[in-house]
Amino acid sequence: MPLFMDTHSLGDGVTMDDVAKAHAADLATQDSHGVNYLRYWVDEGEGQIFCLCEAPSADAANSVHRDAHGLVADRIFAVQEGS
Amino acid sequence: MPLFMDTHSLGDGVTMDDVAKAHAADLATQDSHGVNYLRYWVDEGEGQIFCLCEAPSADAANSVHRDAHGLVADRIFAVQEGS
Predict the structure, then answer these.
(1) Which residue in A18, A37, A60, B60 has its CB near the most CB atoms, within 10 A?
(2) Which of residues 35 through 74 in chain B touch A, CB cutoff 8 A?
(3) InterPro entries given for it (chains A, B) (predicted)?
(4) Which of B32, B75, B30 is nearest to B54 (CA)?
């Protein structure tokens, strides 16, 4: 399944707690879209969030955010992973 | 050790091969800076790269890129990981 990294630049700070709640809503919503949110990274001070997911399309990935909590990504990238 | 996600927006496309070579240079350079590059994600068409690393500081992380291949990040974020 294609892999996507999305970015949210909130401008103001954000707490891990708030993002964890939004992520829990994503997990509760994703199955109906065929999406699997894998992990995320948060810079609390900068209000920057990165979400990594497997999804059939970028639209499907963003629909999960929209349905779960309304905080859609600023950008979403179709990525390949290396290590 | 602190965790950082950096972003490179190259504008033009980039190949996984080229990024893999740069990453190999990072791995060969990182020990002297006390840095551990963990994994990375690439959108070849958009020329967008995300690098995740453990480092004592953002400066140390960026110094690895500078010494290894000169392609320093556009931005670097001090992140916490969730899943």
Answers:
(1) A37
(2) 38-46, 48, 50, 52
(3) SCO4226 (IPR042557), SCO4226-like (IPR025336)
(4) B30
Neighbour count for residue A18 (Cβ, 10 Å): 16
Q: Which of B14, B43, B52, B81 to mutate to test the interface with A (most CBs of A within 10 A)?
A: B43
Residues B32-48 pLDDT 10s: 999 999 999 999 999 99
Give the separation between CA A16 and CA A22, rounded to whole angstroms. Answer: 10
Q: Are B10 and B47 in contact (CB under 8 A)?
A: yes
Over residues A13-40, the mean pLDDT reads 96
- The CATH number given to whatever domain includes residue B35 is 3.30.70.3090
B38 contacts: CB under 8 Å, gap ≥ 6 = A83, B52, B53, B54
Residue A68 zone, left/alpha/beta (φ > 0; ψ -120 to 50; rest): alpha
CB A3 within 8 A of CB A80: yes
* Residue closest to B4 by CA, chosen among B48, B49, B57, B43: B57
Determine contact: A11 vs chain B, CB below 8 A.
Answer: no
Q: In which domain, by residue range, is A36 found?
A: 3-79
